[in-house]
Amino acid sequence: MEHIVVNGLTKTYCDGTGVRTVLDNVSFEVHKMERIAVIGASGSGKSTLLNILSTIDDFDDGSLKLNGVEMGGINAKEKSRIRLEKMGFIFQKYCLIQTLSVYDNIILPVLAKGEKIDEVYIHGLIKRMGIEKLVNKYPYEMSGGEQQRTAIARAMAGRPEILFADEATGNLDKNNSETVMDMITECIDSYGMTFVYVTHDMELTKYSNRILKIEDGGIRCE
Ligand SMILES: Nc1ncnc2c1ncn2[C@@H]1O[C@H](COP(=O)(O)OP(=O)(O)OP(=O)(O)O)[C@@H](O)[C@H]1O
Ligand SMILES: [Mg+2]
After folding, report:
1. What is the CATH number of the domain that holds 114?
2. Is residue 9 part of a domain?
3. Would 138 be classed as within a structural domain?
4. Per-residue pLDDT of the chain (222 residues; tens, 9 = 90+)
5. Does the Cβ of 21 fall within 6 Å of ligand 1?
6. Ligand 1: distance of its center to the CA of 41 in Å?
7. Quick check: CB of 15 below 6 Å from ligand 1?
8. Ligand 1 in contact with 42 (CB < 6 A)?
9. Ligand 1 and 45: CB distance under 6 A
10. Dihedral sign, Cα of residue 84, residue 138, residue 117, residue 194
11. Does residue 64 fall inside a structural domain?
12. What pLDDT shows up at residue 180?
């Protein structure tokens, strides 16, 4: 079943030097529970595409459907509800809240949704990420890898349908990157999530079912 359908999507940026078309009439589909790696040179539009798919950013032309619902015309409030309900995000810079413990960071999306905390599910995530001993610590007391594993548990805490990651392991060394990618893919498979991730590291495309390559404003499936 199609989870994300992109049709004739175009995104341009205007700056001092003029108009730049970053995505030029691109079309593709992502099926439920697929793992998609988005690759391309620096500045090719990988983050732009991820931000559009996750409804954080607007597009200029074409169509984006999530679960068959067109995202083009809907208002900001509705988009933010969809993000909260259906999406999880992992960023290169972790984006943990320094004044909250690991546990409190992780449960944030559940609190934001106003849902009851499913302790069994949350503790399952904490265990899978190997951070059981760290739950009472604060982000500044932890290594980069530990912070990223916390951020991943947080991204999955609200049981998202789609997990987006932009250079999720960009701050980690090769061993840690692979450990983290193994953990993510194991989780998304067992929870039945769709995974769309940006990487500049060709090695990490091995965790995908399919590669989308952005080049000169176009997208090629590999
Ligand atoms: N808000 C913005 N205003 C103007 N131009 C922008 C904006 N955001 C991105 N761009 C431009 O769009 C192009 C694509 O940027 P994007 O961040 O998507 O690239 P990327 O593939 O993620 O690169 P990297 O691998 O370096 O993260 C770049 O040329 C960038 O300068
Ligand atoms: Mg980027």
Report:
1. 3.40.50.300
2. no
3. yes
4. 689 999 999 999 988 888 999 999 999 999 999 999 999 999 999 999 999 999 999 999 999 999 999 999 899 999 999 999 999 999 888 889 999 999 999 999 999 999 999 999 999 999 989 999 999 999 999 998 899 999 999 999 999 999 999 999 888 889 888 988 998 999 899 999 999 999 999 999 999 999 999 999 999 988
5. no
6. 11
7. yes
8. yes
9. yes
10. positive
11. no
12. 87
Please report the atom of ligand 1 found closest to the CA of residue 51. 18
Ligand 2 midpoint to CA 200 (Å): 9
To which residue do tokens 């909260």 refer?
84
Which atom of ligand 1 is nearest the CA belonging to 198? 22
Task: Give the total number of structural domains in the chain.
Answer: 1
What does the angle CA 91 – CA 93 – CA 98 come to, to the nearest 5 degrees? 115
Ligand 1, atom nearest to 49 Cα: 18
Residue 5 lies in a domain: no
b/e per residue, 90-127, with b = 16+ CB within 10 A? bbbebebeeeebbbbbbbebbeeeeeeeeeeebebbbe
Bridge pairing between strands 61-66 and 218-221: unpaired
Best of 22, 59, 166 to mutate for ligand 1, by most ligand atoms within 8 A of CB?
Answer: 22
Q: Token pair for residue 138? A: 């604060």
With H, G, I as helix, E, B as strand and everything else as coil, classify residue 213.
Answer: strand
Is the minimum distance from the CB of 44 to ligand 1 under 6 angstroms? Answer: yes
Q: Which domain holds residue 160?
A: 33-56+77-221
